[in-house]
Amino acid sequence: MTIELTNEEKLGIVEQHIKSIDYGIYGIQLDLIEINATSSPDASQVTNLGTRLTALNAKRVALVTEKNSLTPVQE
Fold first, then answer.
1. DSSP characters over 3-62
2. In this structure, are residues 35 and 45 in contact, taking their beta carbons and an 8 Å threshold?
3. Which of 13, 17, 34, 39 has minimal Cβ neighbours within 10 Å of its Cβ?
4. What pLDDT, on the 0 to 100 scale, is given for residue 17?
5. Is 10 within 8 Å of 63 (Cβ atoms)?
6. pLDDT < 70 positions in the chain
7. If 0-12 CB within 10 Å is exposed, 13-18 middle and 19+ buried, where does residue 73 land?
């Protein structure tokens, strides 16, 4: 037996994933603030966090695209 999710249910799931990514993005931004507050920030840590931030932003864009595909167009 297969159960099909409604668009509203799918939207809710996608929005939860987007919110989770938003938390991750904000966490990384705070990490960058903390690292850059030191007298000699570790460049490799800054680079690593920048890479993670780029990946999270790409995931967010993909999820927003999915969300938009599930949202009915209002005329």
1. -PPPHHHHHHHHHHHHHHHHHHHHHHHHHHHHHHTSSS--HHHHHHHHHHHHHHHHHHHH
2. yes
3. 39
4. 98
5. no
6. 73-75
7. exposed
C-alpha to C-alpha distance for 59 and 51, rounded to whole angstroms = 13
d(CA 32, CA 45): 9
Site of tokens 């999820």:
63
Structural contact between residues 66 and 17, judged by C-beta atoms closer than 8 angstroms: no
How far is residue 39's CA from residue 13's CA, in Å, rounded to a whole number? 42
Residues 41-50: tens digit of each pLDDT: 999 999 999 9
